[in-house]
Amino acid sequence: MALRRMDNVLIVVEDLDAVIAFFVELGMEVEGRGPVEGRWVERVIGLDDVRQEVAMLRTPDGHGKVELAMFHTPKAISAEPKNAPANTLGIRRIMFAVDDIEDVISRLRRHGAELVGAVERYEDVYRLCYVRGPEGITIGLAEHLR
Asked: What distances in angstroms separate CA 119 from CA 20, 67, 88, 113, one per listed residue?
C-alpha cells in the first residue's frame, strides 16, 4: 500500500485563540474546534488524564491542514530555546505558497509576527522568507514569480 497524503501537522499552543487568529489572517479556514479527551486519546498519544481543546484549520484548496492543540491537562511543556534558530533539530517551519508576500507579512504583523531574516529572491522562481508568529511558531512564505 502506498502513502496517500500528508494529513496534517500538529502544533501545541498555549493561546489557542491568538494562534487561530494568526493562521486565519494567513488565509487558512477553521474546519472545526472542540474538546478532545478520554481514554482513546490517552492511548494514542501516550499521556494520562488528557484534556485538550483542538482546532483544525485547512488551506483554501482543502489539501493542507494544521491542527492546533491546547492542553488543559497534562500541562504543556515548553521546548527550549523558544525562538530556536533554523539549524535546531526538529520541525522548524511550515511553508505556505502565497500570492503577495508583502501583503501577507503586513497582515501577519498585526498579530505580532516578525520577519526572522529578510525577504529574498531565489533566482527567477520565488521570493521567500520566514516569519515568526505567536508563541514562536515559524512559517515560511513563498511567492512564485510568474
From this structure: 24, 27, 21, 14
d(CA 44, CA 120): 41
Q: Is the dihedral of CA 93, 31, 10, 52 positive or negative?
A: positive
Q: Measured on CA atoms in the order 144, 58, 132, 21, is the torsion positive or negative?
A: positive
Residue 97 amino acid letter = A
Cβ proximity of 56 and 31 under 8 Å: yes
How deeply is 20 buried, as exposed, middle or buried, from its count of CB atoms within 10 A (0-12, 13-18, 19+)? Answer: buried
**Distance of alpha carbon 75 from alpha carbon 71, whole angstroms:** 6
SS3 6: coil
Give residue-wise pLDDT tens across range 104-117: 999 999 999 999 99
Displacement of CA 134 from its chain's centroid (Å): 10
Which residues, other chains included, contact 95 with Cβ-Cβ below 8 Å and sequence gap of 6+?
139, 140, 141, 142
* Res. 79 pLDDT band, cuts 50 70 90: confident
